[in-house]
């Protein structure tokens, strides 16, 4: 359900998320399984007093698949799958007091996410996954309209990544050009840079000419692309693929030099290239019953050579490798208590009091500590 924020000439309501909880992506807090986030609902009034029934904070999570129709039938039906819905009353009128007399009220709240692996926050043409906080001032008893606001929470699941024990080497050949691409991992997190070692060489037709064999196979350009594919589980034929990161290396560009190495075909050229990843990439998803998100690294190497027996000819080597985009860096492991969201289990977040959430230290109370005299006497 989409909530449209309402406006009122006298009363305004807003939701503030405190910055010290969670990590940020493009200055926005991001939360995951087990995360705790704290915020404040602000209620401001230009005139007071204001009569009201209660102030309610609601937290909802849900995923939706867009319905697709070919003019005759639905290829993909509209899918709505709510994860949870919960609310907490921040203030409520009493029989004797129904007036808000101050110009500014602050209502703090703390929410802890369950150890459940939900899909990530997404707003895609085929699929949407949203986690929304909404706060509303209800005044139905006084026949006044409800004032409400909404704040979207960015959520990311725990997706592990790892290095390879042995480098992955992909090879390709076209029109006399041999090329290989070496990667030390096939899993990265948003914001990483993918380092790639590209080696090119040529098979020379006239092997009697030693000078030709010693010449490396220089390239005109190396194109690196990361392609994202989003597909619906119920209809794999319905998918959208797009390039989400791209880097083009040209031989004429400064700094893009190569090293000469020996290969089985003679002299070779070794290029060190890299593909920077955006910080806002959606992680790879393979556990959802509604959507799949996968990535492919495309490498296109172009080289030109002038033949002694004919005109200039081009060689193009294309390579593709499946990549995994995770959210946890190398060596970081998710909790063993983590469960997938569609399993029949308790999966609702919890409203907590103050900062007393699970696995936190108890609040400091000096009355619980032994006196200094007692402590020293025990040591003696």
Automatic annotation (TrEMBL):
Note the InterPro entries from the entry.
Answer: Arrestin-like_C, Arrestin_C-like, Arrestin_domain-protein, Ig_E-set
Q: Name one GO cellular component term.
A: cytoplasm
| Matches recorded under SUPFAM superfamilies | E set domains
Q: Which GO terms describe its biological process?
A: protein transport
- Source organism superkingdom: Eukaryota
Q: Which residues form the Arrestin C-terminal-like domain?
A: 173-330
UniProt xrefs under PANTHER family: ARRESTIN DOMAIN CONTAINING PROTEIN, FI21816P1
Name this polypeptide is given: Arrestin C-terminal-like domain-containing protein
Organism of origin is Mucor lusitanicus CBS 277.49
């Amino acid at each position: 359900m989409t909530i449209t924020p309402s406006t009122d000439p006298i009363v305004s309501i807003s939701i503030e998320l405190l910055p010290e909880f969670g990590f940020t992506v493009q200055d926005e807090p991001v939360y995951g399984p087990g995360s705790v986030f704290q915020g404040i609902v602000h209620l401001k009034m230009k005139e007071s007093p204001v009569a009201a029934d209660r102030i309610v904070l609601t937290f909802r999570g849900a995923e939706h698949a867009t319905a697709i129709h070919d003019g005759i039938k639905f290829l993909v039906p509209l899918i709505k799958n709510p994860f949870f819905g919960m609310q907490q009353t921040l203030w409520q009128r009493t029989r004797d007091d129904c007036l808000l007399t101050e110009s500014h009220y602050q209502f703090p709240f703390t929410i802890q996410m369950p150890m459940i692996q939900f899909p990530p926050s997404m707003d895609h043409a085929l699929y949407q996954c949203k986690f929304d906080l909404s706060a509303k001032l209800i005044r139905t008893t006084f026949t006044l309209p409800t004032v409400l606001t909404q704040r979207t929470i960015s959520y990311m699941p725990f997706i592990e990544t790892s290095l390879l024990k042995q480098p992955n080497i992909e090879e390709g050949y076209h029109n006399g050009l041999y090329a290989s691409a070496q990667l030390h991992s096939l899993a990265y997190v948003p914001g990483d840079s993918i380092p790639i070692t590209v080696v090119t060489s040529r098979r020379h037709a006239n092997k009697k000419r030693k000078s030709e064999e010693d010449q490396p196979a220089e390239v005109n350009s190396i194109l690196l692309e990361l392609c994202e594919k989003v597909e619906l589980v119920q209809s794999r034929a319905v998918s959208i693929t797009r390039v989400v990161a791209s880097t083009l290396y040209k031989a004429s560009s400064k700094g893009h030099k190569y090293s000469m190495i020996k290969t089985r075909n003679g002299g070779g050229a070794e290029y060190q290239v890299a593909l920077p990843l955006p910080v806002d990439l959606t992680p790879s998803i393979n556990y959802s019953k509604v959507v799949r998100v996968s990535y492919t690294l495309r490498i296109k190497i172009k080289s030109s050579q002038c033949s002694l027996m004919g005109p200039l000819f081009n060689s193009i080597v294309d390579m593709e490798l499946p990549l995994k985009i995770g959210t946890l860096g190398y060596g970081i492991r998710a909790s063993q208590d983590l469960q997938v969201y569609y399993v029949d289990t308790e999966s609702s977040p919890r409203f907590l009091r103050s900062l007393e959430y699970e696995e936190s230290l108890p609040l400091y109370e000096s009355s619980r500590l032994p006196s200094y005299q007692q402590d020293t006497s025990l040591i003696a």
